[in-house]
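Blinded run. Sample ID left blank on purpose so nobody reads anything into the name before looking at the predicted structure. Input follows.
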Amino acid sequence: MSPARPTGARKDPALQKAGKKTAKTRRRRGPGSPADRAAGGHRTDLLETMLRIRRFEERCVELYSATKIRGFVHLYIGEEAVAVGVNEALTPEDAVVATYREHGHALARGITPDAVMAEMYGRTTGCSGGRGGSMHLFDASRRFYGGNAIVAGGLPMAAGLALADRMRGQNRVTCCFFGDGAFAEGEFHETANLAALWRLPLLLVCENNLYAMGTALDRHEAQTDLAMRAASYGMVAWAVDGMDVEAVEQAARRAAEAIRAGAGPHFLELRTYRFRAHSMYDPDRYRGKAEVERWKDRDPINRLLNRMREDGGPVDDELAGIERQIAAEIDRAVEAAEQAPEEPVEHLLHHVTSAPAEVS
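Blinded prediction complete.
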């Protein structure tokens, strides 16, 4: 497991040569000590959740191409280790605020594939009642406060949730995901300043995939070490290999434990990469194929699989079973979404305005 590195100037990993569960997992216990078996079972859980996100989104690509899913769709493929590793460090009482690329966050948080797929279809059985679609997944019962279509738009809301918890004396963490493009927005700097000033229980997770839509990080930020910039606000900040799910989990646990102990906000710069274009509409002409292939060599799913194989676990048989289970889940989710009702036209104005106030 790669430890979280303290903030400091270093080359981007792309330039270096170093190459909550939604279902119960049936685990096969191999030889070794109880601790080894427990570690192996946990790795299986991490693998299963990353695979669920990957296969779900691959199906979404097929459905989008078949015009079953419409509107904007932003894929998380390649970044699965971030959502999975961070969510492993959170409790059900903690809050999560996500970005518009949030399918992975929602599934890792425990929202079912059925509820997410129905939302992709715009059906009433979706987690947002069919009104949110790909960019606005929401589930208050899991304290998942949505995807946000506006870059950095979730940050002030996350600060508010964290402030509310602190004022109520509740020892909870609010985790806010956002991309490197958020550093160009005032909301990030305002939130970081107030979070540090008020010592809010806020975990700021920057998914640095090196591109703000189609603009490379070094073309919109003079200082590309984002953890260093966050540290300037007086909060603890680390840069972490976002393609290693175990390194992400370790760093997130360390940060969450410190926040719960009253240490104030923490910032994680998770250096990751999306294998697909910014959105399904994006021709992806701003980066070279060779760069994409270099990052695919660090695929977080394959990295964990290789680590499990090196440790002698019964990986391949277990992997086949997990793949069958996930394929069946997604098939059921698609079938249920296609049979679910659309919202009636007469409900068009529901949830748009509040009921008229009675005036005495």
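Unblinding after everyone has recorded impressions. The beta strands are 5-6, 95-97, 174-179, 202-208, 211-212, 215-216, 236-241, 266-271.
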